[in-house]
Amino acid sequence: AQTVTQSQPEMSVQEAETVTLSCTYDTSENNYYLFWYKQPPSRQMILVIRQEAYKQQNATENRFSVNFQKAAKSFSLKISDSQLGDTAMYFCAFMDYGQNFVFGPGTRLSVLP
Amino acid sequence: DTGVSQDPRHKITKRGQNVTFRCDPISEHNRLYWYRQTLGQGPEFLTYFQNEAQLEKSRLLSDRFSAERPKGSFSTLEIQRTEQGDSAMYLCASSPGLAGAAGELFFGEGSRLTVL
């Protein structure tokens, strides 16, 4: 069974600064997808960024980018130019080709003015 | 289509009562998932449907829990004889379910259950 670990329960960052959230996972699969989801306070979870395991190039979405290290089974999220609206719980998630999702425990990010 | 909707948003019940939650997915999505989320934790998988077929159930889903998706549209999650440990946010998500593709999950706002 796949597992996803996020070792940072809480983090904070000053507005406009850069922050990196860590995620490691365990799987015996070779092909899979990885995601970062964001859950703002009292709002629904939304997708931030996805990475396909067969792609070596790291995914980027505007201020959000990932550092995907397949051999190390590591998938960190970098948020550049942090904004107050980035304050949320961030969940790392794994999906196999059967579309079975496993989520990590989350990291609570606070962006400070 | 305004996205995934869940009802009720909040349910307070006494231990031993039955509760039912409803989820209306995005209309063209054939996959529907139920997750449970406790405070400060990530979503835990409960079950999912491909159209009307329930394809997988977590071992977390005791026999007090039952889920249906008649006609492959909306879904209901029923909890019988509720216990205080059932208190959680119940999340529904839908996905286009494209095999081999990165099927993004679209979440509803959740149904919060409080068992007194």
Give me the secondary-structure topology.
The complex is a heterodimer of chains A (113) and B (116).
Chain A: E1 3-5, E2 10-14, E3 19-21, E4 24-26, E5 32-39, E6 46-52, E7 60-61, E8 64-69, E9 74-79, E10 88-96, E11 101-103, E12 107-112
Chain B: E1 5-7, E2 10-13, E3 19-24, E4 31-37, E5 44-50, E6 53-57, E7 65-68, E8 75-79, E9 88-95, E10 106-107, E11 111-115
Parallel strand pairs in B: 2-11
Antiparallel strand pairs in B: 1-3, 3-8, 4-5, 4-9, 5-6, 7-8, 9-10, 9-11
Walk me through this protein's architecture.
The complex is a heterodimer of chains A (113) and B (116). Chain A is mainly β and 113 residues long. Chain A has no helices and twelve strands. In chain A, the strands form three sheets. In chain A, strands 2, 5, 6, 10, 11 and 12 form a six-stranded mixed sheet that branches. In chain A, strands 3-9-8-7 form a four-stranded antiparallel sheet, with no helix packed on it. In chain A, strands 1-4 form a two-stranded antiparallel sheet. Chain A is globular, with a radius of gyration of 13 Å. Chain B has 116 residues and is mainly beta. In chain B, strands 2, 4, 5, 6, 9, 10 and 11 form a seven-stranded mixed sheet that branches. Chain B has a four-stranded antiparallel sheet with strand order 1-3-8-7, with no helix packed on it. In chain B, a hairpin with a 6-residue loop joins β7 (65-68) and β8 (75-79). Chain A binds chain B through residues 4, 6, 9, 33, 35, 37, 43-47, 50, 52, 91, 95, 97, 99-106, 108, and chain B through 3-4, 31, 33, 35, 40-45, 56, 91, 93, 95, 97, 99-100, 102-105, 107-110.
Helix share of residues of chain B?
under 10%
Shape of chain B: globular
Q: Could you tell me which chain pair has the largest interface and how many residues each side has?
A: A-B, 25 and 26 residues
Q: Helical stretch count of chain A?
A: 0
Output the radius of gyration of chain B. Answer: 14 Å
Largest sheet of chain B: 7 strands, mixed
Per DSSP E runs of 2 or more residues, the count of β-strands of chain A stands at: 12
Shape of chain A: globular
Order of H and E elements of chain A: EEEEEEEEEEEE
Counting helices, strands and paired strands, the structural category of chain A is mainly beta
**Quaternary state of the chains:** heterodimer
Count of alpha and pi helical runs of chain B: 0
Query: What's the N-to-C terminus distance of chain A?
Result: 41 Å
What's the helical proportion of residues of chain A?
under 10%
The main pleated sheet of chain A reads as: 6 strands, mixed
Q: Give the total of beta strands of chain B.
A: 11
Helix/strand class of chain B: mainly beta
Strand content of chain A: over 45%
Strand content of chain B: over 45%
Head-to-tail CA distance between termini of chain B: 35 Å
Low confidence ranges of chain A = none
